[in-house]
Specification:
rod-shaped, 4 helices, disordered C terminus, mainly alpha
Length: about 170
């Protein structure tokens, strides 16, 4: 696997961000709690601040819970992505194999057909591709007459286009 250095560094920084934020949040909570404890010992805090330890424990629990949920969500997202990639790979494998077969057999035969004869008529082309017309991969093959470079091109509608002319313009 080849990856750009900047992309790699960005991925490392992004992966490092949640643990760093967790550490900073816990340090801030503990620091704030320690400052409040010192104030409580010095009798500067009002009477309602008697339950600092349970409140601090609850806040630390919420932060740890949010961090854990974030990690689990990221793990689930990666699992879903991996499962999707495996499914896509299995489905595209069939298509890739059909395209390889098309390239190996049908396109090679068409190239050799054109190498054999310098001038091919539409009738010869139709005869050559007749057995292929029931294969969906090559149904779009069509005879296109050569246009000399000196002559201006003109629009020649194909039989396929004429069939659909009533529904849609080509």
């Amino acid at each position: 696997m080849d990856i750009d250095g900047r992309d790699w560094n960005w991925k490392l920084a992004r992966a490092m961000l949640p643990p760093v934020l967790l550490t900073l949040a816990l340090a801030a909570i503990l620091g704030f709690g320690a400052a409040l404890m010192r104030s409580r010992i010095a009798r500067v805090l009002p009477r309602g601040m008697r339950h600092l330890e349970p409140a601090q424990a609850a806040v630390i629990g919420m932060v740890l819970t949010l961090f854990t949920v974030g990690l689990l969500h990221e793990h689930e997202r990666r699992s879903d992505t991996k499962a999707f990639e495996q499914l896509a790979d299995s489905r595209t494998l069939v298509i890739a194999e059909k395209l390889r077969h098309l390239l190996a057999a049908e396109l090679e035969s068409l190239a050799r057909f054109y190498e054999h004869s310098p001038t091919i008529t539409p009738a010869e082309f139709q005869q050559f591709v007749a057995y292929l017309t029931n294969k969906t991969a090559v149904q779009a093959w069509e005879w296109v007459p050569a246009v000399a470079a000196a002559c201006p091109p003109r629009l020649i509608p194909s039989p396929w286009c004429r069939k659909r002319a009533s529904r849609k313009a080509c």
